[in-house]
Amino acid sequence: MNLAPYAALEAHSRGRHHAEPGPSNRSAYMRDRDRILHSAAFRRLEYKTQVFVNHEGDLFRTRLTHSLEVAQLARTMARSLQLHEDLCEAISLAHDLGHTPFGHAGQDALNDCMKPYGGFEHNAQSLRVVDELEDKYASFRGLNLTFETREGILKHCSLARARELGDVGQRFIARGQPSLEAQLANLADEIAYNNHDIDDGLRAGLITVAQLREVPLFRRHHDEVIDTYGALRSKQERHETIRRVMSTFVEDLTATSAALIRGAGVTHIDEVRALGSPLISYSEQLRAENLELKRFLREQLYRHHQVYRVMAKAKRVVRDLFAALFDDVRLMPPAFFEAARTLEQQQAEIGRARAVADYIAGMTDRYALDEHERLFDPRRLR
After folding, report:
1. Which end of the chain is least crowded, N or C, by CB within 10 Å?
2. Which stretches of the chain are assigned E, i.e. beta strand?
């Protein structure tokens, strides 16, 4: 692997909380990736929502397919920029491990429930999953990932929360930057969900090509497809346009970032971290076009009345579950009940609330719906 001096070289790694012998046939970041892939939290992503609730159809993206797409994009761009592909992949695969069922609607509802107890944010929960909640190793709790992977998982964080997180929270206090690999995985996430939400929204019939042509970036590439191929089947037309849009993001981000890195003259990862602004970025033109695309998706897809109605019901499920389980933690499975008792002894109501949030955040869409039915439908006795 031909890495640049500003990449997250393993020789410059800040290591793991618990010292371990180095792997003999893979990089330290490959070990991180493998531990993430074999975690229970990663397997559950298969049944967690992006925009559409899991039972609505088998063809829509889930958190699992989204994470795989992010990893593929991040590795591609990392290779062009001579960054560490294995680290980019590990961060990409782990970034949504702490996401709730029902996508952002579930996160918003759980955050509302947790506001008196410190709030809930899925990036911080993803870090909690890999640091604490995965419990399969004899020598330590969590997955004992490298600092660099953990740094990349925590994309944003309040100052209050940062002060509680020790090493990975320090950059938010110092107003520094994470590694270039972390910055790249963050924008690969955005590129992936923007483009696959267009695809899923079109296939679901919630948005139309005619509506999307109001977005200059989409219209430009749609015109190119029509000019090149003429009449196509709707599936081909959709795919050819979306892949051009995605390629524009990837090519622009790679070229712009390479120029910014050269201009900054960084030669070490610590120099990257000391900067006041990121070096992985779109050009000014594409940043403006990206904002228009995101505005369209927010107004026309995420706030579409059909999506809104489903997500309103999903929020009620999360709120009901939290209220019932917080009131009586014995309703949770034994392992979570014991965790709630332990945390409550340490932190009183805040600890109890955190244990309930851990349980709910780990649920898949289907499990949350089933658990709600088990708790509230008097005809369900088990």
Report:
1. C
2. none
- The total domain count for the chain is 2
Residues 6+ positions from 131 with CB-CB distance below 8 Å: 17, 141, 142, 143, 145, 150
Same domain, 206 and 82: yes
Per residue in 18-57, pLDDT (tens digit) is 999 988 899 999 999 999 999 999 999 999 876 654 444 4
Tokens of 37: 């892939």
In 3D space, the residue among 40, 49, 42 whose CA is nearest the CA of residue 89 turns out to be 42
The partner residues of 62 in beta bridges, in order of sequence, read 49
pLDDT at position 57 is 44
351 and 226 in one domain? no
Give pLDDT tens digits for 84-127. 999 999 999 999 999 999 988 999 999 999 999 999 999 999 99
83 and 56 in a single domain? The answer is yes
For 341, the domain range is 307-376
List C-alpha distances in Å: 121 to 96, 99, 226, 278, 312. 11, 8, 43, 22, 19
Kindly state the average pLDDT of the residues 153-166.
85
pTM of the model: 0.94
Q: Give the residue with greater pLDDT, 380 vs 325.
A: 325
Non-local CB neighbours of 296 within 8 Å, separated by 6+ positions: 211, 212, 214, 215
CA dihedral 186, 191, 193, 198 (to 10 degrees): 170
